[in-house]
Amino acid sequence: MNESNRFFLIKAWGNGFWSDAEHVIGQLLIAELTGRIPVVYWGADSLYASDEPLVKDAFTMYFLPVSNYSINDLINSNYTYYPLRWNYGDVRLPGTKDLAEFEDVPIRFSRSENVLVSNIHIYVDVLIHWIKQSHSAYGLKVEDVYSYLYQKYLKLQPYLSSEIENFYVKNMKSKHPVLGVHIRGSDKINECPNLYEINNSYPLEIDHYLKNNPTASIFLLTDCESILARYIELYGHKLIYTDAMRTPDDNVPVHYVLPYYNTKQKGIDIIKDTYLALKCDHFIGNHISNVSMAVSRLKDWPEGTIKLL
Question: pTM for the whole thing?
Fold first, then answer.
């Protein structure tokens, strides 16, 4: 087997957008460490699936491909696949998640199959001790490895870059300094029992910032209509926000159970908010939110300009 037929197929993890992106990032690191060509395929198992999920990849609706190969290059009756539950006839299809693969990382370095397949989220924390001295990320802290990989691989499709830039020029460019603020609502309370306590601390942080920067504007990212309404009331004309879909109810997670919400638009909304936050001068977010973590990793923030509550 030569280098041109050693692949790593990264399927969807099947959770929120930036959780799935973090999953991709961890698998891309494994691909680098095992010397395999990465291919990302978000199919019908993705919350952001395309309108033809068994044919058209959703990852590349948003990002440029991570290699010069696609899922089509990996479907070959002469190829072998690992784990053994996969074969050339079903790699496009949603598959079961075998959580035993969390313990499978060492085995992946010695497998000889043409195509390794993963739909399991493995954190960079687990992988960092496998990074050899010759690798660009050797010696970096975990968060720095994440930043290196996010900035290396996550390149937006041009139409998204243009849409983001157009919003910025129209709504933000003349309003610096801008404080980006990300506040999670909806189902995050299930993961974070003290979410309301964290959310209630934002106004104090924002007011402190405005005291030192009285002409500043606030760019708000939130998935919850009631949070948006509260901040419009608090900060009025200082507030900037997109027209992203938001949930009207804290018990309704916007990206899971609003069936009328176009799946591609879900991803666009999240990406647009995330990348607009990168254009802010300062940022306040939630340290257990994948959106806030993506904002922290996609830009090298100067010291003192980002705070995750």
Answer: 0.93
